[in-house]
Request: fold
Amino acid sequence: MSITHLQSFVAVAEEKHVGRAARRLHLTQPPLSRHILALEDELGTRLFERTRQGMRLLPAGEVFLHHARRILAEVDTAVLTVRGLAPRESDG
Amino acid sequence: MSITHLQSFVAVAEEKHVGRAARRLHLTQPPLSRHILALEDELGTRLFERTRQGMRLLPAGEVFLHHARRILAEVDTAVLTVRGLAPRESDG
DNA sequence: TGTCTTTACGCTCATCGTAAGCATG
DNA sequence: CATGCTTACGATGAGCGTAAAGACA
Reply:
C-alpha cells in the first residue's frame, strides 16, 4: 500500500470512472486500474462494483474512503506543518 | 513521500541510529539513510542532527514524528477495519 | 583507527504507456 | 459497434545491496 494508491482510490471514488480519474491524475487508465486492483487485493475485498457506466463504491469502499481521505489530509498537514517550521534557504 | 519513508523515519527516530533501525527494518544502512535524506529534502528542513553516536531529533523532527506515528496508526486502522468487513474466501 | 553516515554503482523489481482483450448493451 | 475496465508486454525509473568514501574524535 502506498500514498499513491490512496490518492488513486479517492480519485476513482469521486469520479466514479477510471478514465476521468486517470486524466485528473495525469495518468492513463491501465496503471490506475492496477492501483485499485492492488488495493483490493491487499485489503482482501472488493472496494468497487464495476457497472456499465463505471465504478460504484461498495460498502467496504465507502468505509475505506473515509480512512483514505483522513490519511491523505494528515499527510498534507504533516508536510505543511513541518514546512512551516523550516528555515528558508534565504535565511541561511 | 511514501509510507515506507514514514516507517523508516519513525524507526530511526526511536533507535537514534541508522544501523540499528536498518536491522530492525530488515534493511541495510544506505537505503535507510537515503529515505531520511529524501524526506528531509522533500520537507525542506533537517529532521535529525547527526552526532558522534548517531541521529538525534531536531525540533522539526519531533513535530514530524507525532504526525508520522499518527499517519501510520491510521493506515493500520484503515487496513484492519476494511479487512474486518471483508468476506472471507471460505465464506464464498 | 574506529564508528557512523553518505555517495557510487550495478542490478533487480516495480510501474508506466501502448496495444490488445474482454464484457456489456 | 461503442464504452469502459483489465491483461500483455516492452521500456523506463525507483530502490536495494555491496563497496568505497567522507566526517569526526
